[in-house]
Amino acid sequence: MKSNWDVIVVGGGPAGSMSALHSAKYGASVLMLEKDREIGVPVRCAEGVGVVGLQKLIKVDERWIKTKIDKIDIISPNNTSVKVKFDTKDNGYILDRRIFDNDLALLASQAGVTVKTKSYVHGLTFSENGSVNGVKANILGKEVNLSSKIVIGADGVESRIGRFAGLKTALKIRDIGSGVQAVVSGIDIDQNTMKFYVGEKYAPGGYLWIFPKGNNIANIGLGISGNRCDIKKPKDSLEKFLSKHFPNGSILNYVAGGIPLAKTLDKIVTDGLVLVGDAARTVNPISGGGIVSGMNNGKLAGIRVAEAIKENNFTEKFLKKYKDDWYKADGKNHERLYKIKNFILSLTDNDFDHIAKKASAIPIEKRSVLKVFKIVVWRKPSLVLDVVKAFSGF
Ligand SMILES: Cc1cc2nc3c(=O)[nH]c(=O)nc-3n(C[C@H](O)[C@H](O)[C@H](O)COP(=O)(O)OP(=O)(O)OC[C@H]3O[C@@H](n4cnc5c(N)ncnc54)[C@H](O)[C@@H]3O)c2cc1C
After folding, report:
1. Ligand 1, pocket-test mutation among 9, 45, 299, most atoms within 8 A of CB
2. Rounded to an integer, what distance in angstroms lies between the CA atom of residue 84 and that of residue 45?
3. pLDDT at 56 > cutoff 70
4. What is the tens place of the pLDDT at every residue in 23-39?
5. pTM above 0.90, yes or no
6. Local confidence band at 233 (pLDDT 50, 70, 90 cut-offs)
7. Which atom of ligand 1 is nearest to the CA of 47?
8. Domain shared by 269 and 127, yes or no
């Protein structure tokens, strides 16, 4: 394998593959390194995505889709249910990320990217002027130094690449969603509804989800705000819920993982390096969804990185346009969602029950996510404009 590349991408998740694909598509020589032995495994995700966002980024392959979602059901602590139906039959998908992530990497490789698995990056190299100019890696058991004009850090929520480059990547504890999820089979649930249980009773500072995967299987999990984990341990809470609601379900696997429920980092580029996806904190701070936003973010980074290669300019100043593009695309909206999330953290179970009662009084054909969130912020009118901007169309 050659040791000089235009671009080295660290991490083979959706954000990494999209950044690699778009860097290569616009002419760069790209190497993508993934530490695990297989792209897409293990799956630490509930696999839910919005259709519109995904379709804007990629031609959707039916093999990726486990189920199509046409409504959501939000359940408050006293079991008041607020259903929201969408106009189109397939408004959301529950993906099969094993196939999906693998296919994204395949698309990148078909665009010219060299993909290597079992390739762990444990350091960066720097030029004399302090610019990042390569990685230190262990590839299939062999220590190597590889040089590149630009490194893309797509190494997920636990990202070390940004830190190696001196960027401030630390999250506030309350902005770390502590997630745990089980794949449960043999359960009788509506296959087209995503369920969200809210409130202290289920998941303090977060929510519990049931996302159907077809064939009486579902991803059932919960995310708790990092500063509330001492009160309720996520796995204990999930087990309690499962034994109460699905005592006869079979648990096929458990996974745990962190979710960055924060605004995008202030600084996601430096000389010779950009961060993308969870590593740059591009997850939707309310839903915790980071697949589509990470892909979009990766795409924007890839395009700018390819321009940098063409212009032979790898400086922070040149690369910064990627951050500006991201801010216009989703970053600004995530700032609004972050403000709304912080308000939601202050709500009590009584508040959730009150909101659910008011929302369920809206006739179902007139109910929308936007209308529900307007009720959520009823006590804080200054957030109404943010809600309108963030949820218009939902
Ligand atoms: C329990 C849970 C449920 C979730 N549910 C949803 C959901 O329903 N919908 C949704 O949109 N999002 C969900 N998310 C969030 C979503 O999984 C992430 O936002 C998304 O995977 C981010 O993509 P990424 O490419 O940035 O990072 P990742 O998908 O995490 O990919 C990073 C990759 O980098 C690799 N890597 C890390 N370090 C190195 C290294 N040093 N060298 C080489 N490789 C490295 C990792 O092995 C990994 O493959 C969930 C997250 C959790 C934890």
Report:
1. 45
2. 23
3. yes
4. 999 889 999 999 999 99
5. yes
6. confident
7. 8
8. yes
Alpha carbon of 11 to ligand 1 centroid (Å)? 9
Distance (Å) from CA 277 to ligand 1 centroid: 8
Atom number in ligand 1 closest to CA 16 = 25
> Is pLDDT above 90 for 78?
yes
Task: Say if residue 231's pLDDT is above 80.
Answer: no
* Distance from the Cα of residue 191 to its chain's centroid: 23
Number of domains in the chain: 3
Q: According to the model, what pLDDT value does residue 226 have?
A: 83
143 burial via Cβ count (<10 Å: 0-12, 13-18, 19+) = exposed
The reported pLDDT for the residue numbered 89 is: 66
- Residue 57 within any structural domain of the chain: no
CA of 18 to the centre of ligand 1 (A): 13
Neighbours of 324 (CB within 10 A): 12
Q: Are strands 176-185 and 250-260 parallel, antiparallel or unpaired?
A: antiparallel
Domain boundary (220, 243, 260) is at 260
Return the closest-CA partner of residue 99 out of 124, 64, 65: 64
Q: Are residues 357 and 210 in the same domain?
A: no
Q: Do both 350 and 369 map to the same domain?
A: yes
| Ligand 1 centroid – CA 185 distance (Å) | 24
Task: Report angle CA 240, 242, 247 to the nearest 5 degrees.
Answer: 110
Instruction: Give yes or no: residues 180 and 324 share one domain.
Output: no
Mutate to test the pocket of ligand 1, among 138, 278, 282, 299 (most ligand atoms within 8 A of CB): 278
End-of-domain residue from the set 334, 357, 373: 334
Taking the CA atoms of residue 357, residue 196, residue 78 and residue 243 in that order, the dihedral angle to the nearest 10 degrees is 160
The answer on pLDDT for 159 being more than 70 is yes
- Alpha helix stretches (DSSP H) within 229-383: 234-245, 291-311, 316-326, 332-344, 349-360, 369-376
User: Mean of the pLDDT values across residues 84-102?
Assistant: 91
**Would the CB of 371 count as within 6 Å of ligand 1?**
no
